[in-house]
Design goal:
2 domains; 17 helices; 34% helix; 17% strand; elongated; Rossmann fold; 8-stranded mixed sheet
C-alpha cells in the first residue's frame, strides 16, 4: 500500500480523537483533513488537542447539499466535485455503538437516529474510495440480531468493492503487552479492516493479521491497576460518607465470615430475610443485569430462584453472625443495590487470612457492589460506574486522568485547559468521554499491523 508523501485521513464520529492519536503513533507526520463529531464537549477537547483540524459537527449535514432551495443527500459526484469530504488515504470511524450494544435497546440497523449512520460512512467510502478503512465498535456487534447486523456491514463493504475478512477481530487493551500499547482495562472491541479491491489491495485473514506471540500478554496477573495512578485531584476521586460506610460494612463482612471460600454467586442480604422482590425485565432487553424490580405476580426466572436458594442456604450456615453484622451496620437502610455483594476476588484472596476489600478493585454498580482483583479494570463506560480502588487504609475512585491512561491518553492538560475556560465542563464530562473513546494503543496496533502487512 502506497500512501504518498504524507498520509491523509479523516476521523468520523471522532469523540476526543482516539483514532487521531493512533494515526500519529503509526504515521507521525500524518494529516487529518477532516474530523466529524457532534458532541459539543468532545468538540472542545478535540479542538484543544488538534486546533488545526477541520472539525465538523454533524456527518449528515456534511453530506447534504441545498439545490433550488431544497436540501437533499449529496451524490457521490457532488461529494467529490464540491469537496464536501476531502480526498484521503485512510478512513477511521468509531461509529455509534448504542444500536448494537447490550446496554441499549439493540434495535441495530433499524434504529433511526444512530443505526443508519453506518450508511453515511458507506456514502463517503463509495465517493472517495480511501485505500484503507478502519472501523471500531462494541464486541456485541458481531452477534447482534443473530449475526445479521454484522453480515449487513460486511456485505455493504464488499458490495462497494472492498476486501474485508468476515471473521471478527476482537481485541482488549489488557490482552496487549504494555510495550505494544496495552493497558490494564478489560475492554473488548471489534475492529473491521477493509481495503479497496479496485486498487488491487488484499486484506489478510484476521488470524494472520496479528501474531499473538508478539503482542499478547501471557497472563492477566501481569497487570497491576496501581501502575496507572497519576495522583488525580482529591475532589474528583474521594468517596462520600455513605459510599465509605457501604464499603466498610462489606469489608467487615468478608473478614468475619469463617470460611476460606466466599460464595461465587451474588450475595443478596435481602434473600436472608425473604425481602427480595421479584425481577421484571426492561422492555427490549435480554440482560438480567438490566432487570428492574416489580411487585406484580409473575413466574420466577430460574437464575433468580437459584440465587435465592443459595443465599438462604448460606444464611442458615452463618445465621447468628449475619444477623449481628446486618444489625451493626444497619444494612436494611442501605439502597437495594448496596445490599448485594458480587465477590469475584477469590484468586486474589483464596483463603480467609488477610481477606479484605481494601486491596481490591470495586465497582458500585446498579446491580450491586462488585469486587475484583486489583489487576485490570472493567471496561470504562459512559455512566457513573467509575471503578474504586482500595489503597490499604481507604478507597478512592480512579481519577479522570487515570481513566485517560487506561484509554491511552497520557496527557490530561487539554481537559484542564477546557475546564479553565468553561466552568460548566467538569470531571464528569471527561469520564464520559473516556468511556466512549477508542483505545489509542489497540487502535494503533491494528493500524500498524494492517498498514505494514499491506505494504509488503
Amino acid at each position: 500500500m502506497t500512501f504518498g508523501k504524507k498520509v491523509r485521513f479523516i476521523d468520523l464520529f471522532a469523540g476526543i480523537g482516539g483514532f487521531h492519536h493512533a494515526a500519529l503513533k503509526v504515521f507521525p507526520d500524518a494529516e487529518c483533513v477532516m474530523a466529524v463529531e457532534w458532541d459539543k464537549d468532545c468538540q472542545k477537547v478535540y479542538s484543544t488537542m488538534f486546533p488545526e483540524t477541520d472539525l465538523r459537527g454533524d456527518i449528515r449535514e456534511v453530506l447534504y447539499v441545498t439545490k433550488s432551495g431544497k436540501q437533499r443527500e449529496a451524490t457521490a459526484a457532488e461529494i467529490r466535485n464540491e469537496n464536501l469530504v476531502p480526498e484521503h488515504d485512510i478512513l477511521f470511524a468509531g461509529f455509534p455503538c448504542q444500536p448494537f450494544s447490550k446496554g441499549g435497546a439493540q434495535k441495530g440497523m433499524s434504529e433511526q437516529t444512530q443505526g443508519t449512520l453506518f450508511h453515511e460512512i458507506m456514502r463517503i467510502i463509495e465517493a472517495r474510495r480511501p485505500q484503507l478503512v478502519v472501523l471500531e465498535n462494541v464486541a456485541n456487534l458481531v452477534g447482534h440480531d443473530e449475526g445479521r447486523t454484522w453480515d449487513t456491514i460486511i456485505k455493504a463493504l464488499r458490495g462497494a468493492s472492498y476486501n474485508v475478512d468476515k471473521e471478527p477481530l476482537v481485541l482488549s487493551p489488557h490482552e496487549v503487552k504494555k510495550v505494544r500499547g496495552g493497558a490494564p482495562q478489560n475492554r473488548p472491541r471489534v475492529y473491521i479492516v477493509a481495503v479497496d479491491a479496485k486498487k488491487g489491495l488484499k486484506v489478510p485473514d484476521n488470524s494472520n493479521l496479528l501474531d499473538p506471540s508478539d503482542w499478547r500478554t501471557q497472563s492477566s496477573p501481569a497487570w497491576d491497576i496501581e501502575t496507572i495512578f497519576k495522583g488525580s485531584d482529591p475532589e474528583e476521586t474521594e468517596l462520600d460518607e455513605k459510599e465509605l460506610r457501604w464499603l466498610e460494612a462489606w469489608d467487615d463482612f468478608v473478614k468475619k465470615v469463617p470460611a476460606d471460600d466466599l460464595p461465587g454467586f451474588p450475595i443478596w442480604a435481602d434473600a436472608w430475610y425473604g425481602r427480595m422482590r421479584k425481577p421484571g425485565r426492561v422492555e427490549g432487553s435480554t440482560s438480567t443485569l438490566r432487570a428492574k424490580r416489580a411487585d406484580e405476580e409473575q413466574d420466577d426466572p430460574e437464575w433468580w430462584t437459584d440465587f435465592v436458594v443459595k443465599n438462604e442456604r448460606f444464611y442458615k450456615e452463618h445465621a447468628g453472625l449475619l444477623d449481628k453484622w446486618f444489625d451493626k451496620w444497619k444494612v436494611a437502610n442501605f439502597p437495594e443495590s448496596r445490599r448485594k455483594l458480587e465477590w469475584q476476588a477469590r484468586r486474589h484472596h483464596p483463603t480467609r487470612t488477610g481477606r479484605t476489600l481494601r486491596d481490591c478493585l470495586i465497582q458500585l454498580r446498579p446491580s450491586g457492589i462488585r469486587v475484583k482483583p486489583p489487576t485490570y479494570a472493567p471496561a470504562l463506560v459512559a455512566m457513573a460506574q467509575t471503578p474504586v480502588v482500595g489503597l490499604g487504609d481507604t478507597w478512592r475512585r480512579i481519577g479522570p486522568a487515570e481513566a485517560g491512561v487506561l484509554q491511552g491518553f497520557t496527557n490530561y492538560r487539554p481537559w484542564k485547559k477546557v475546564m479553565r475556560v468553561d466552568p460548566t465542563f467538569r470531571a464528569g464530562a471527561a469520564y464520559k468521554q473516556f468511556g466512549n473513546a477508542v483505545n489509542i494503543g489497540v487502535a494503533a496496533l491494528v493500524l500498524k499491523r494492517a498498514a505494514g502487512y499491506l505494504s509488503e
